[in-house]
Request: fold
Amino acid sequence: MGKKSKPPPPPDPTQVAGQQTQLNQQAAGYNAAINRGNVSTPLGSQTFNYRGTDPTTGAPMWDESVQLSPEQQALYQQQTGQSQAVGGVSGSLLPGVQQAYGQPVDTSGLQQRYGEGDLLGARKQTQDALYNRQASFLDPAYAERERGLETQLANKGVVEGSEAWNNARGQFGREREFDYGQARDSAITGGMAEMQGLYNMSADSRDRGMNELLTLRDRPFQEFASVSGMRDPAQLPQFQGAPDVATGPADITNPIYNSYQGQIDAYNAKQQSRNALMSGLFGLGGAVAGGPVGGAIAKRIAKP
Reply:
């Protein structure tokens, strides 16, 4: 029967992986090459140049360069120059912004609200002003009436200190006190309305002044923001490259291991067939074991 056969050796994983990696790298390099086509347009050109492999990984290295047409190059330089000029202007405005926002708003020169800080004093001042305004009409009127009363009493021969004189003077005094009392009441009643009006006027004036201060303070920032917004970056024309094309690397791992599995299956089938044959021969040898032929066969089978 000959010597017993051995199963096929398994594939070396390191070798298989190395072969697959090599195929992957070749496919990647192929894909890189077919996707790096040069582009030429009226705006300019886009080119790729192979410059060797990376010393560490062995990967292919490419350089990409863009060359604008003379007209586009001039436009790009113009845009760049304008952007730089705007940047210089905005930079010169920045100190003004920092100064405006680096200190609190000075409100010392603004109109104060009426009554602020001394409400009772402002109320008395308003009432006194209203009373004095009415008294300015009453004083000359009653001074004239008093002179007329004295002349009238003298013409009638009424002696000062007499009952008639005292009655006339008492009536005059009561009328005068009544009118001046009404003036005081009117000043008290109208003082609140007058004070509210003065407060509203002063508050409105203060608000307008505050708005003007804030507007003046924000003006440097508004100018800075306006100029900075004009600083558009220079735009390069866009080149439409060829669509990406890719090819997958060949699969070498599965075929190797599938081939190995086929060899194992063939080996196992061969071993099963051999075992079956030997089992039959041993049975035949047992039947003739007493004769010389059986002994020779048994010795032959037993021999490795």
